[in-house]
Amino acid sequence: MNIYAKLTLLCLSLVLFSAAVLSYFADLQVEKTFRESIIASITQQADEVSNDIGRFIFSRLNDVRMSAKNPHFTITDIGRDETTTRLQELENLSDLYYSFSFFDMNKVRQADSKRLSIGKQHGGGIYWNDLDAGEEFVMDISKSESVGRVVMHFASKVDDIITGEDVGVLVGRILVDELFNVVGDFSLSADSSRRLDIHLIDEAGLILYSNTNPQGMLVDSYEKFDLVSTLNAPGVNRIEDEGTLYFVSNETGYLDYAGNNWKLVLSISNEKAYAPLQKIREQILWAVLPVVGISIIFALIAANVFVRPIIRLSNAAKEIGKGNLTVEIPQGSKDEIGTLAKQLSTTSQILIKRIEQQKMMNNKLHDQKGRIEKQNSQLEHVTKQITDSISYAERIQRATLPPLTTIQKVFPEAFVMYKPKDIIGGDFYWFESVRRGNNEYMIVACADCTGHGVPGAIMSIMGSNQLTNIIYYQNYLDPKKIVSRLDKVIKFELQSEHDDGTSRDGMEIGVCVIDLDTLRMEFAGAGTPLRLLKKGTDKMTIYKSPRLMVGGIEGDEQEVNSKLRKEVIQLEPGDKIYMSSDGYQDQFGGEHDKKFMSKNFNKLLEESSEGSMLDQKRTIERTFAKWTRNSAQTDDIVVLGFEIK
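The chain above was modelled as a monomer; its predicted structure follows.
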């Protein structure tokens, strides 16, 4: 078989094989992409609906909670008629609410915006049970005694404006039909044939809302409850059963509203969900067939075009193989074959030139060696200057750190392990006692700045100075406000308030404020936890802070403050408090060169807490030295601890 026949068969085989392979993998990719698109779309809808319900309930609870603080309800000697008028005004403020009622603590209805069942004692219910159990504000979905319909109850206790005692309960009702405005009606296409089935069920499986079985609300149990009840992971859970896709979102509450352990279930059959897939496959097939036909024709033409110059090039190659480097090679075409012919004709000339160039290169290398040696000498001089500058910067940075005696004056048992990765580092600590009025407070902070070395040191000095300014000169005492104000001023210093919000410069920090008279401690932070070992216990309590970066938190000062949380802890003499950056637990070392890990760090603190704080510091340092025996330090480290006296 000559080369023309071989090339023709090869081209045809490649075309057919490529078409088959591409069609197969295109079909797989289309199916995968389509399925992922469907799953992503429903997952997003489930997440959005769950969040919308949480925000809706939180907002309505806030409505009732704020209304319950109105003096018209907190003053006990206001008459029923005036109370009824105030309830009607609340009802008129929003079209959402069907009615409002005011009960005394014996469940007797004192007033109602629709004047229903006034003077009658309520028979109790889910929200009454929660209020009796000590909750201050609750909500549930149940059938209303007075309205006779399924409603959402939003209830809040009312405190006497003078004594602060519970004097009644304010209840707002919203028809459960209003949930339709929150949940809506979702489908996977413009037509309603691919509509999603939506069910909201409680922890026992009872249907609270349904767009397919509205008459079953608070009556029927969800038929697939045994299937979806096991899906309790955060976010949206997906499961497929009997040809149907189920997407389950567990209610997680919203802000300070803890939620009622409801589940939102979105479901659709595979037949409906993937109905357009077959049509897409047909479209791909009809698009591929003409391309395959045209490719076969071009393959036959290409075989004929390429064979002739290959034969001529083959003859010339034989001459070159005999040593005739000056043989004339046909160079008519401008494609790869023509390029190959041109390369063959110049190979011998290139080899000769390369030999000459190599000789010249050797001479240049000899000259360059002398220049490199001179540059090395200059580099050593520059390196020494840089090292001297960094050493001086170390003295400046350490001067910004407070002396240990500052905290030991208040808490004699205290230590600080400060170990930068380089000569200077990005970790720092800050503590000082301040007086506000008649009270004296000890403020302690521990921070881990982005980067280490010179950039980290600059950031740490700026952070330490700004803490001093915020606490001393701006008189901030609340740890949340200190952290949010620090975020603002760092953004200003780094000119990051007007950029695209993607700055990664900043720091993780934890701040605790201790009232030295009452030993009441408040803690807030961003990315840095607080560890507390209560006296008489051997188990650490860890107060984590949000994973945020001060100086890069999105939003203004008030928005940043809302993203933080504050822990209030009553301390006792003998309690031990620890704060640290993540450098210790992230250090590689040991027999298998792995990270030390947070759990081992916590265990180390627990097991070494029996002796004095100085002994504990020595134990921590010895453990670190042993762990890093064959490994370099990977990050800056600061660990501080003190015992309440």
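The chain has a mean pLDDT of 84.
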